[in-house]
Amino acid sequence: MNVSDLTIKKTRELLDKKEVSVVELVQAHLDHIKKKNPDIFAYLEVYDDALEQARIADKRIAMGETSPLLGIPIAMKDNILRKGFTVTAGSKILEGYRATYNATVVNRLSEAGAVFLGRTNCDEFAMGSSTENSAWGRTKNPHDTKRVPGGSSGGSAASVAMDGAVAALGSDTGGSIRQPAAFCGVVGLKPTYGSVSRNGLIAMGSSLDVIGPFAKSVSDAESMFDVIKGHDVLDSTTIPEHMRTERKAKTHLTVGVPRAFVEQGLDPEVAKNFEATLKKLSDQGHALVDIDLPTIGYSLAAYYVIMPAEASTNLARFDGVRYGLYKSGKDRIDDYKQTRGAGFGPEVRRRILLGTYVLSAGYYDAYYGKAVQAQRKISDEFNRAFQSVDAIATPTTPTPAFAFDEKSDPLSMYLADIFTVPANIAGIPAISVPSGEVVRDDSKLPLGIQFMAPKLGESILFTLGRSVTGE
Amino acid sequence: MIEKRDIHKLADLALLFVTDAEVEKLQKEIEPVLDYVSELQKFAGKEEMPKEGVVHTIMRDDGEPHESGMYTEGLLGELPQREGEYMKVKKIL
Fold it and tell me: Which member of A36, A77, A407, A455 is catalytic?
């Protein structure tokens, strides 16, 4: 069977009409992965029980069960735990580690009948915007193999873009779902902070991290989100059900455009595509207004204080005692130093040191204190803006996918996330939807538009996303 | 300005082994990032500093304990070094 352009919706129809079995569907994906993966390297591992999971899903279908994700083959980022299977967060320090429990999202998706095909490559501990920081090798962009797929969830984005999975899971701390989704031409949703459980997600920046889906259509992303969202006693930052007053989307929405913020450093063709996409929205009856978010420009600076501070704290647990790599030193403290020195790659080391710096006694107020203050002000500014607009639009990225090694200094790589970071700082949901393409060096490269909505306003994002894709 | 000895000190605090050559590289890479985030100093800081962030942790009540020992072997199985039911580390005192 042909796996190209198979959406959840289309696959559901095929399965419900018994035109294909889950085993056939999964086998077709495994064959396709075998063909494509040596070149793209989206997957680090294909699970050896994929067909076994498929047989179970077939049985459930035979028993008359039907639900949106039953039998749907999906991929998962290498920082989400599946019991008994290797998970490394793209790092040597977790080489050979096998998860001892399932992430809550894995349990929810298994109950819904989804089939896990394998785990996908990512930047080490989700730190990066190109997947070049993985200890296991580089994932290539399926649209042009000389270019990066984006990151940090680059493997998940590429797995869907190369038709190696119908949908995938990623995690987003500063743009790690939306930026690779834009670069690979798929839909990527960063849900509201606390709407999806992070139990079983290897932590980076705990006040920013959220798990979300990649999909081939906006409605597919919604189907995935509907299954993974919800309160979880094992993640105390998830929003309790009684506090989840979801905002329902109207048919015609008001979209704010923060002009001054959007216009900095934007590629001219990205700017043109952004304007054309906005026009498409207004043609469909949505209203566009220019808005001013004066503090939003501080988001990236605040992010590069808060995130390393939290990451350096979270990564303190990797010391060669409880899991993963162990290197022997001259004494116990030296064991830790040698293990961490050998196990962590360059970007992780930079962020650990940066985090240690901004948290040290003499600098705490000047960096961390200021960053938290900026975070509050940015959140307040978004809240005020959402009193007059339903959503805010920006391009997802300032440029299309860049070439390997193009961004060799860390700061230029960090600036690739300029438009995606504010949503994490404010904890609001955001989506990247394919909005067209540009031609560079004879390759057609996808572009994305990003919408941000108030907390729990995912339905607004889906409505606007569908207006762009024409679903 | 971040000095080489600062990098050494930070690496020591973070329990991270770094070579002298790497210290030089890290200094060059971290300096521009610190410059960039120093932009925050311009941020109007007259208002009182919040004592905590926007996010608060909510602890759940203890209850419904799992069966004693049901995770023990799984967790011990991941230890790089073990001796029976213990994790093995070098001398502490």
Answer: A77
